[in-house]
Write the structure tokens for this entry.
Amino acid sequence: MFLFIVSVKWQKELFQAMEIDTSQPAYVFKCQLYDLIGVPPERQKIMVKGGLLKDDADWSTLGVKQGQKLMMMGTTDEIIKAPEKGPVFIEDLPEEEQVVALVQHSAGLFNLGNTCYMNSTVQCLHSVPELKSALIQYVHSGRSNEVDQTSHMLTIATRDLFNELDKSVKPVAPMQFWMVLRKKYPQFGQLHNGVFMQQDAEECWTQLLYTLSQSLSSIGSSENPDTMKALFGIELVSRVHCQESGEESSETESVYSLKCHISQEVNHLHEGLKHALKSELEKASPSLGRSAIYLKESRINGLPRYLTVQFVRFFWKRESNQKVKILWKVDYPLELDIYDLCSDDLRKKLEAPGKILRDEEGKKLGLKASEKSSGSKDNDVKMSDAEGSSNRSGEPSIATSEEGINLKCPC
């Protein structure tokens, strides 16, 4: 990596000490100018050797020198005209229009060159208000001795980017966050032919959650020692059984997402989740004195406030020695019911909230509580029954949404 320090003249203003990182695309430099001046990259006309600076230009061929003055032309965002109608507050709109209005006014993130994986991760986490509050508390408390410097920097960069997204109505260039992310996790800085490579969003999600978990645990209270675990942590209880020796044990673990492994047998999200909770592993058997195959069956014993589900769409193909994407179509509901994936203890805890939820749904449909409870056993369809009706010829069944199956989580 080599940095040039240049100045940029725009209209009557001169912006000095501008850094150009020659290892990054020219588009990144344009995003820096956009943050500073307000001229969107697509309107910037920067004069360099051979003409105008292109987004994918190779700095080594442009002859840019240390201390050089660059000329830029372009206009800032267009002036917004006064509305013909009076102001309409979002709170006064119907619920459906409120959602659309909020999406339209949310600031987006510039793609800095194959950074869509990072942008989608940031925007998902940005939608969690409890995480924003925790990051503000972290700023006030400062870094503890248990948090390393790069984790601290990435946590601060996340907080700053969230603040910028909340305040801005224009797209934001996440330059500082991207640089700190690559410093903490160098795999996100891999280059191919001088261009940053596309990366896996799930890896970015996992690494960022791990970092925030380390940082925010230092400000947790006795009632809630781990903020990230409370928001995203899933507690699993597993039965590990060896059919050959009859040995059996139980274990618990905490994960940040449920996996949906995709194959030709999986047509619905619920099927993939159920299959992923069963696995085989090979380990030493004390009674047999050798390795044996154990069957591990897991159940959800604790749910977070936000449940993360990963579609495992990539696998390693040994023949070609490369990662391959699975294009098999998998249906998923808008409301996911995972009641039958939970342990018996958790099901008991969900019974009371589930009844309240069913009663509320019944009120919306104009049913009395007695009518709802008397007919629920006959009308409810279990997810396992719905899965049995899927088309095994390979086309996913879509009967789940058409037949009114209750897919709302009772928690």
Remarks:
- DSSP finds 13 helices and 15 strands in the chain.
- The chain has three domains: 3-73, 91-225, 233-402.
- Residues 344-364 form the longest helix (21 residues).
- The longest strand covers residues 290-302.
